[in-house]
Write a structure and sequence with these properties.
This protein is mainly alpha-helical. It has helices at residues 6-20, 22-25, 43-66, 74-90, 95-117, 122-141, 145-148, 197-218, 220-237, 243-267, 278-291, 298-311, 318-324, 330-340, 348-362, 366-379, 381-394; strands at residues 154-155, 174-175, 178-179, 183-188, 191-196, 270-271. The protein contains 17 helices and six strands.
C-alpha cells in the first residue's frame, strides 16, 4: 500500500492510530486526580508535539542519515513563520497559502546556505550553519526590520491589505473556514478530552511528512545518504559525487523546518526573531539524539519528551511536592522537597540535562534503543542473543587453513 512493504504499512497504520488518538492517550488520569498534573492532552501542547515532531523528522533526514550536524535549522523555522504571517497580512488568515510560501522560501534559503556550507564537512560545516543562523537572527532584529518588525515581531494589523478577506471570513488562522483555535470538549466519567481543530490539522500534516520520510528512508536516495554517513571518502573513490545528495537532504530538511515554523504561526499569528536563535537549533539536535538519530520514530519521541518536560514538569512547584509527600513526617517531607526543589519548576532544564546525559551514556541509540532493549527482555530475544554470543565464545568455529 502506498509503495510500502507490508511491515512498513503496518507501522504507518500504528503511527496514524496513535497520532489521531493522542487527545485520549495523553489524558490518562481523571481531572480531579492528584496525578492530573501529568496529563498533557491540551490543544496548545499537543500542537507543539506535532509541530516539533515535524521539525525533528526533517532534521533527522540530514543528521540521522548523512551524519551532517547542522546548528542552523532555526533559521528555516523563522523563515517559515515570517512567510505565513506575511500571507496573513497580504491575503487572509487562511493558512494554506502561507504554508506553501513557507515551504518554498525555506527551500530556497536552505539551498543557498547548503550550497555554501556543504563545501566543508564535520565541525566546519556545523560552525558555518551556526554562523548563518546567527546572521539571520541578527538581521531580523536590525537591517530587515521593515520585513520582520524587529523586536516587536511581525503581526497582523487592522490596516493590512488582506485582499482575500471576505466579510464573513474568520479573523484568526483557519483552513477554509475551519478555525484553528476552536475545539470540542467531551466529558466521560472523570475525564475530559479536548479535540482541537488546530491539533488535528497539524497531526494530519505530521502523518503526511512522516510517510514521506519513511519513503525517503527506504528509497535508493536514502541508501545513498547512509553510505555518505558510513564512509564518504570511500564513496568518492567509487566515482560518485556525494554533494548533490547532501545538498538535496539539506534542502528537504530545511523545507520540513520551514513547514514547522509555518505551523507555529498557524497556532499564533505572530512571528519573532527568537525562533531563529541558536537555542532553537540546539533544541532540535537534543530532540533527535534523545529519541534516536537515524531512526524513524526516535526524533518524534525526543520532541514529545522535551516538550512534555518544558510544559508539564516545569509547572511542578514546592506546593505540589508538599501535597505529594504530605503523608510523610514533617521533617522527611521538608527534606525531600528541599532536595527536589532544584530539579522542578524553572529547574526543569537541569532534570532534562541529567536525563540526556544518562541516555547518551547508557543508551547511545536514544529512547528507541531503550524501548528495543525492554522489548527484548520481555520477548526473551535479548537473552537468546547473549546466550548465542556466549556459546560462540566457548565453542569457536575452527579457522580455515590454506595448505
Amino acid at each position: 500500500m502506498l509503495g510500502l512493504s507490508k511491515k512498513d504499512t503496518t507501522f504507518l497504520l500504528i503511527v496514524i492510530f496513535l497520532t489521531l488518538a493522542t487527545p485520549i492517550l495523553l489524558q490518562p488520569f481523571p481531572e480531579n486526580s492528584a496525578l492530573a498534573q501529568f496529563n498533557a492532552g491540551y490543544p496548545d501542547l499537543m500542537q507543539r508535539f506535532a509541530i516539533y515532531g515535524i521539525f525533528a523528522i526533517g532534521f533527522n533526514i540530514l543528521f540521522g542519515l548523512t551524519g551532517y550536524l547542522s546548528f542552523g535549522h532555526a533559521a528555516f523555522l523563522g523563515v517559515g513563520s515570517y512567510s505565513v504571517v506575511w500571507m496573513y497580512k497580504l491575503l487572509s488568515y487562511n493558512v494554506l497559502p502561507g504554508l506553501i510560501l513557507a515551504v518554498i522560501m525555506s527551500a530556497l534559503f536552505a539551498l543557498l546556505i547548503g550550497f555554501i556550507s556543504l563545501r566543508r564537512s564535520g565541525i566546519y560545516f556545523s560552525i558555518l550553519t551556526l554562523a548563518f543562523a546567527q546572521m539571520s537572527f541578527n538581521l531580523a532584529y536590525s537591517v530587515l526590520t521593515p520585513l520582520t518588525n524587529g523586536e516587536t515581531g511581525l503581526q497582523v494589523y487592522t490596516n493590512d491589505p488582506q485582499v482575500l478577506m471576505g466579510p464573513g471570513s474568520p479573523s484568526s488562522p483557519h483552513f477554509f473556514g475551519i478555525v484553528m483555535n476552536e475545539s470540542a470538549k467531551v466529558d466521560i466519567g472523570g475525564w475530559q478530552f479536548t479535540f482541537s481543530n488546530g491539533y488535528y490539522f497539524c497531526a494530519i500534516i505530521a502523518i503526511i511528512v512522516f510517510y514521506l520520510s519513511l519513503r525517503i528512508f527506504r528509497s535508493p536516495f536514502g541508501i545513498m545518504l547512509r553510505a555518505i554517513k558510513t564512509n564518504q571518502t570511500r564513496m568518492s573513490y567509487t566515482g560518485l559525487n556525494s554533494r548533490p545528495y547532501t545538498l538535496a537532504a539539506f534542502v528537504i530538511s530545511g523545507m520540513y523546518a520551514g513547514l514547522a515554523g509555518g505551523l507555529l504561526a498557524s497556532m499564533d499569528p505572530l512571528a519573532g526573531a527568537e525562533r531563529m536563535q541558536w537555542t532553537a537549533s540546539g533544541e532540535v539536535v537534543l530532540m533527535t539524539i534523545l529519541g534516536g538519530a537515524g531512526t524513524l520514530m526516535g526524533p518524534v519521541l525526543g520532541a514529545g519528551f522535551i516538550k512534555y518536560f518544558e510544559n508539564i514538569f516545569s509547572k511542578i512547584n514546592d506546593n505540589i511536592l508538599h501535597t505529594w509527600f504530605s503523608a510523610l513526617p514533617d521533617g522527611l517531607e521538608d527534606a525531600l522537597v528541599f532536595m527536589l526543589h532544584p530539579f522542578i519548576g524553572k529547574g526543569w532544564n537541569l532534570t532534562l540535562g541529567l536525563l540526556f546525559m544518562l541516555v547518551v551514556i547508557f543508551l547511545p541509540g536514544g529512547l528507541i534503543e531503550g524501548g528495543n532493549r525492554i522489548w527484548g527482555l520481555i520477548t526473551g530475544k535479548g537473552r537468546k542473543s547473549k546466550r548465542a554470543v556466549k556459546d560462540n565464545d566457548h565453542h569457536p568455529k575452527p579457522s580455515a587453513h590454506v595448505n
